[in-house]
Amino acid sequence: MSFRCSVPKCTNSNKDGYCCVTFAQDPELRRKWIDAVGIADWEPSKTAVLCEVSYWAHSAEKSATRALAVIGIFF
């Protein structure tokens, strides 16, 4: 199955070889990700993803845990 990045103007997909991640499950972190996408009154579907180009994953503890990742760079 092919997944396209949810960020406006981004056409990257896993089919094109980009790593894609689903939105965080933690409600507070998920809200930060949604706000960072920048689409007013939008809620991602269960299959909505972000590509590796559209985000910069990091945490305060420099953890590699994806669940702690925070969106940093968008188009």
Describe the structure.
- GO terms for molecular function: DNA binding; zinc ion binding.
- The protein has one domain.
- Helix content is 15%, strand content 8%.
- The longest helix is centred in the middle third of the chain and has 11 residues.
- About 12% of the residues have low confidence.
Provide the spatial order of strands within the biggest beta sheet: 1-2
Mean pLDDT: 77
Low-confidence stretches: 57-65
The N- to C-terminal Cα distance equals 25 Å
Encode the helix/strand succession as letters: EHE
Number of domains: 1
How many helices in DSSP terms? Answer: 1
The major pleated sheet works out as:
2 strands, antiparallel
GO molecular function: DNA binding; zinc ion binding
Keywords: DNA-binding, Metal-binding, Zinc, Zinc-finger
Domain THAP-type: 1-74
Pfam families: THAP
Features:
15% helix, globular, 75 residues
Topology, pairings included?
Elements: E1 20-22, H1 27-37, E2 49-51
Antiparallel strand pairs: 1-2
Short description:
This is THAP-type domain-containing protein. Helix content is 15%, strand content 8%.
